[in-house]
């Protein structure tokens, strides 16, 4: 097989990297995942995710992990309320009978990121993930210089070698420049993300509105997305049109809740006071994230022994709920190309995968940018509701 006697290094243990490791290991490949986190437990894993039939769920099927998923997903956490800035409800899935289930094309079950990561980690052979491996550089070696073509250098001074390198290291990928010089562009929207522990006690009004599901609020060309997590906390993010350099230019200390609250009151001045709850909980750490997108027409010549998956390949804003799903589908397509036996060399297998990935991203990325733009326009709410009415299942869902 193409991968016989080849050492594969996956950089980054996010959903994309871990899915790929599992799929390749099922085919007997020699894989390591290098992850900068110190351990599996080191940090909270962010908001909930809805997995899609043709991508995230397909990847779990192929990885033999759909039963583990069924044991860990959160029924009804996908129920959405669309509201305006006064929290007036315009669409309410809590009043709809749930008709779809596993096997239906439009069933999009929710899972928290932590349990998804654990399912994938538990499926790997012991020692596959090398924690505390923050990659600072990679260097290419000639056949005369070394047995393996890549040397990987970590912040802690360790090094590793590999024959094939896969960058699954997310939006700010260190590996991407070795594959392409193409850079992302700013989408015009920045998000500010936060998490409220014990949401029932700390933000009771929004908690009541949320009802264990999701809220998408739109008004005055701004959005707030809220989702309930299995641990009783609530994740949320604001989205609004602002300059790319707002994060540094605003002078806000994002660890200082009072400063963030003052900013919110001004920026969301026309929004009802109910939303203040999200910003009044002591100790909330806010994370600002300017939303970038890779160019939709990006393409490059396939390299013989290095490629990208997930956000490293096609970073995009979260307004179509596709990022994790695309990362997991990349893993399926790349592992298929590398292990199907259809290709005589690794470069051809990588080229085949990348061709599929470019075409898919051109389409999904376009939809994502359209959503991002209209949701942050004066007609955002009307357009979103029209989209639901026209195509009830073709809907963006906040993460
Ligand atoms: C606010 C918000 C909401 C979102 N909501 C959704 C949603 O609802 N649905 C959805 O599908 N997507 C959503 N997304 C997008 C989604 O989070 C990403 O698309 C997805 O996580 C990409 O997966 P990945 O495996 O490519 O990268 P990541 O999840 O970013 O994982 C990359 C991994 O690489 C590691 N790493 C990075 N640099 C290095 C290094 N130098 N050395 C070693 N390791 C490194 C990181 O620690 C991390 O574990 C959302 C994003 C945001 C910001």
From TrEMBL:
<dbReference type="Pfam" id="PF01494">
    <property type="entry name" value="FAD_binding_3"/>
</dbReference>
<feature type="binding site">
    <location>
        <position position="311"/>
    </location>
    <ligand>
        <name>FAD</name>
    </ligand>
</feature>
<keyword id="KW-0560">Oxidoreductase</keyword>
<keyword id="KW-0547">Nucleotide-binding</keyword>
<keyword id="KW-0963">Cytoplasm</keyword>
<dbReference type="InterPro" id="IPR002938">
    <property type="entry name" value="FAD-bd"/>
</dbReference>
<dbReference type="InterPro" id="IPR036188">
    <property type="entry name" value="FAD/NAD-bd_sf"/>
</dbReference>
<dbReference type="GO" id="GO:0004497">
    <property type="term" value="F:monooxygenase activity"/>
</dbReference>
<feature type="domain" description="FAD-binding">
    <location>
        <begin position="306"/>
        <end position="339"/>
    </location>
</feature>
<feature type="binding site">
    <location>
        <position position="50"/>
    </location>
    <ligand>
        <name>FAD</name>
    </ligand>
</feature>
<dbReference type="GO" id="GO:0071949">
    <property type="term" value="F:FAD binding"/>
</dbReference>
<protein>
    <recommendedName>
        <fullName>Flavin-dependent monooxygenase</fullName>
        <ecNumber>1.14.13.-</ecNumber>
    </recommendedName>
</protein>
<comment type="similarity">
    <text>Belongs to the aromatic-ring hydroxylase family. TetX subfamily.</text>
</comment>
<keyword id="KW-0521">NADP</keyword>
<keyword id="KW-0285">Flavoprotein</keyword>
<feature type="binding site">
    <location>
        <position position="113"/>
    </location>
    <ligand>
        <name>FAD</name>
    </ligand>
</feature>
<dbReference type="GO" id="GO:0046677">
    <property type="term" value="P:response to antibiotic"/>
</dbReference>
<keyword id="KW-0503">Monooxygenase</keyword>
<feature type="binding site">
    <location>
        <position position="43"/>
    </location>
    <ligand>
        <name>NADPH</name>
    </ligand>
</feature>
<feature type="domain" description="FAD-binding">
    <location>
        <begin position="7"/>
        <end position="177"/>
    </location>
</feature>
<comment type="function">
    <text>An FAD-requiring monooxygenase active on some tetracycline antibiotic derivatives, which leads to their inactivation. Hydroxylates carbon 11a of tetracycline and some analogs.</text>
</comment>
<keyword id="KW-0274">FAD</keyword>
<dbReference type="GO" id="GO:0005737">
    <property type="term" value="C:cytoplasm"/>
</dbReference>
<comment type="subunit">
    <text>Monomer.</text>
</comment>
<dbReference type="InterPro" id="IPR043683">
    <property type="entry name" value="TetX_monooxygenase"/>
</dbReference>
